[in-house]
Structure formats: C-alpha cells, structure tokens
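Quick one, tokens below. Sequence please?
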C-alpha cells in the first residue's frame, strides 16, 4: 500500500497538471482562433446561432482589407514606429543602464529610484502633458510624436532591464578593460555590450511588441496620416454599423506578424530573460 500510494499521487498530479495546461491554452487560444474563424466566414455564418463550426472558408474579407490603401499605410506606420522607437530606446537606454549598474557618482541611487518610479507610474500620466507639448510645437498627429511617446514609455523599462544584465557582468571584466587602455566608453562599447547581447535582444523584442500593440496613445496622438494598425482597425466601425468580416480579417492580419516574430525570436528572448534572472 505504501508503494502504490506515491504512484497514485503522482498520477493524480500529472492529470491535474495537464488539465490545468488545457484550461490555460483554451483560455488564451480561444479568442484568436475565434477571430480567425470569423474572418473566414460570410456574414450569415458569422452570426449564426448556434455557431457554425463547419463552413466553406472565404477570403473576401481579406481581399477587402488588403485592397484598402489606408490599411497598408497603417501597416507601414506601425513598422516604422516600432523599429525606430525601440532602436532609439536601446541607443539611449543602454549607456544609461551601464552608468547606473557600473559607475559610482553622486545621486546615482536617486536616479535609479526615479527610473523605477517612471516605470511604475501609470502611462496615462504622460498623455495629457505630451498632448499639450505636441500641440504647441505643431507635431501632433505625426509619426515623430508617436515615436517620442513610445520612447518615453519604453525608456524606463529599457534602463531598468538592461541595468540588471550589466550588474550580472563581473566588475573585474570592466576593470581589466580599463587597465588595458580602454576608456569608459570603449569598455562599454567593446567589452560590456557584446557580453549582454542576449539581454539587448530580449529588451528590443519586448519594446517592439509593446509599440506594435499600443492603442490608446496612438488613438489620441495620431491622425489620418500617422495612424498605426491597432487604430486603423477601428476604421471598420462606422456610423452605418460594424463591418465584422473586414474587422476580424484586419485583426487577424495585425496579429499574424507579431506571432511570427515571437516564434522566430523566442530562443533569444528566453535566453536573454533567463540570463537576466541569474545572479
């Protein structure tokens, strides 16, 4: 009996584990799967009750969305904003993170606390001040306004995450570089940055995902000529009614690039985040 009980307990735990996995997968996969299925249905099948699970797929909704020149423009805006804002966040944040992690100067702890506070503060606190600033300097409803906004949102995150990666690098490596004739900037650029490249990749990936998916700031600060994809989807919601077919097709098209991107970069993302977790 004493031998069978642990085996029974292990079997129960295994069953409960896989049940939990199934529940979590259903919870997270049901919305995108339903979105995809709806985008492939005609209007009648999309709103049939009970739901139609076996149907003839159509691509009319995708043809309508991809034939919309405005939607392709929104896609270009999203790509530009995501890449530029993430790149500039890394360009500015990496030296700042290095300074906070490895250099000793007056006010260092206060600056680190300010960066942490900026990260914790609700992003909505930035919305009204940024709107007024952009309005008075006449850059409202433009891509530069969105890029600056996303840099403001991503920079505290970038500094805080990268500082943990720099802290994981032994001080002896930096000191050896300084002894060998490298200046502080040379030690940062030629020695320290290559050692945390996995962390740089992970941080860049997270910044790109955040910029790609952000909706509220893009909705308020962008205009017809600078809207991104999350905002562009709302163009299928009109006073005449919601075009559910094109709306779900557009949502699927917005989701697919970031899913493919995450699948391609999952290894450096996991490796980078794991490296930052080891002390």
């Amino acid at each position: 009996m004493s031998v069978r009980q642990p085996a029974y307990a292990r079997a129960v735990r295994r069953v409960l584990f896989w049940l939990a996995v199934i529940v979590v997968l259903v919870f997270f996969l049901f919305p995108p799967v339903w979105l995809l299925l709806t985008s492939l249905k005609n209007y009648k099948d999309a709103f049939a009750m009970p739901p139609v699970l076996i149907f003839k797929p159509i691509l009319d909704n995708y043809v309508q969305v991809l034939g919309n020149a405005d939607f392709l423009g929104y896609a270009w805006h999203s790509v530009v904003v995501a890449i530029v804002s993430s790149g500039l966040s890394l360009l500015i944040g990496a030296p700042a993170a290095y300074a906070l992690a490895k250099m000793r100067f007056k006010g260092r702890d206060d600056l680190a606390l300010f960066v942490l506070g900026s990260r914790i503060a609700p992003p909505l606190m930035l919305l009204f001040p940024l709107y007024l600033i952009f309005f008075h300097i006449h850059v409202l409803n433009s891509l530069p306004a969105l890029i600056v906004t996303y840099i403001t949102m991503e920079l505290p995150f970038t500094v805080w995450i990268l500082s943990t990666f720099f802290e994981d690098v032994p001080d002896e490596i930096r000191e050896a570089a300084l002894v060998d004739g490298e200046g502080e900037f040379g030690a940062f650029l030629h020695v320290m940055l290559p050692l945390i490249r996995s962390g740089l990749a992970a941080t860049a990936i997270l910044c790109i995902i955040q910029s790609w998916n952000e909706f509220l700031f893009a909705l308020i600060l962008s205009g017809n000529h600078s809207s991104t994809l999350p905002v562009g989807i709302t163009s299928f919601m009109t006073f005449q009614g919601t075009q559910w077919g094109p709306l779900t097709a557009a949502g699927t098209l917005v989701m697919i690039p970031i899913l493919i991107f995450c699948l391609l970069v999952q290894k450096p993302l996991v490796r980078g985040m794991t490296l930052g977790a080891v002390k």
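The chain has two domains: 4-46, 65-277. Residues 4-46 form one domain.
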